[in-house]
């Protein structure tokens, strides 16, 4: 899984890393010194976005070495030690179905929210497997799937003028070693903690809570996150 290495030594891949959420996680992790590989369906696009993320991370890193490079999703899945899935729900199953082999044995962190909008606002989509994270686990039987990073606004992640974030990352998964490493990764984001929040069968509530936060954001013109008290 991580061969006993500490989280700082892991290369983090981001599938769909050219979008706001992937870019935001990448720039914050890279600025903290994490080596990051940005994935895309188009390797050239990944390279361009990675160069821009690296430039912004370097400006914020205060002298820490920054490493962000781009590649195709499949190459990133193969080369990274731990992979974050940041594609839209509409492309989630098809993306992962092709990556079971390169992702075997790895921790796969899913932040995908099954969400749509209608005239009443945001609402949660039914996922046949129960949750997006459980869908990932079904498609990646040899990976260690963890759900996390759902409640982080991409806008705040990308806004490096605010150096410290405010909130917690709820982490769900079935394998202790995998949830521990993802909690540690979340803790590398300045101001954030990773909080264990149950087994993968509880991912549905964590994913769906994001829709409540989106509703908060629309009403209050905010970028709300969550903080777990008394922990
Ligand atoms: N934005 C947020 O604030 C936020 C917060 C929490 C969680 N999330 C979750 O994070 C994920 C990414 O969010 P986002 O706002 O960054 O999404 P996005 O911009 O819509 O998509 C991210 C990237 O995924 C790739 N992509 C688009 N359609 C795809 C498809 N059908 N199949 C495979 N790849 C596809 C694109 O990259 P290429 O074209 O380069 O391949 C795109 O740049 C979503 O599942 C969302 O629910 C987002």
SSE topology sketch:
Layout lengths: L10 E5 L4 H12 L3 E6 L2 H19 L5 E6 H7 L2 E4 L3 H9 L9 E4 L4 E4 L2 E4 L7 H8 L4 E4 L6 H5 L8 E7 L2 H11 L5 E5 L6 H18 L11
Parallel strand pairs: 1-2, 1-4, 2-3, 4-5, 5-8, 9-10
Antiparallel strand pairs: 6-7, 8-9
The chain binds NADP nicotinamide-adenine-dinucleotide phosphate.
Explain what you see.
- The chain has one domain (8-220): NAD(P)-binding Rossmann-like Domain (Rossmann fold), CATH 3.40.50.720.
- An eight-stranded mixed beta sheet has the order 3-2-1-4-5-8-9-10. A two-stranded antiparallel sheet has the order 6-7.
- The two termini are 27 Å apart.
- The longest helix has 19 residues, at 43-61.
- The protein is of the alpha/beta class.
- The chain has eight helices and ten strands.
- It binds NADP nicotinamide-adenine-dinucleotide phosphate.
- NADP nicotinamide-adenine-dinucleotide phosphate (NAP) binds next to helix 1 and helix 4.
- NADP nicotinamide-adenine-dinucleotide phosphate binds at residues 16, 18-22, 40-42, 45, 86-91, 95, 111-113, 150, 152-154, 210.
* Average pLDDT taken over every residue: 97
Number of domains: 1
Q: Termini distance?
A: 27 Å
Give me the side-by-side strand order of the main sheet: 3-2-1-4-5-8-9-10
Named CATH architecture = 3-Layer(aba) Sandwich
| CATH superfamily label | NAD(P)-binding Rossmann-like Domain
- Structural class, judged by helices and strands? alpha/beta
In one word, what is the shape? globular
Query: How many helical stretches?
Result: 8
Helix content: 25-40%
State the CATH topology: Rossmann fold
The set of bound ligands, ions and cofactors reads: NADP nicotinamide-adenine-dinucleotide phosphate
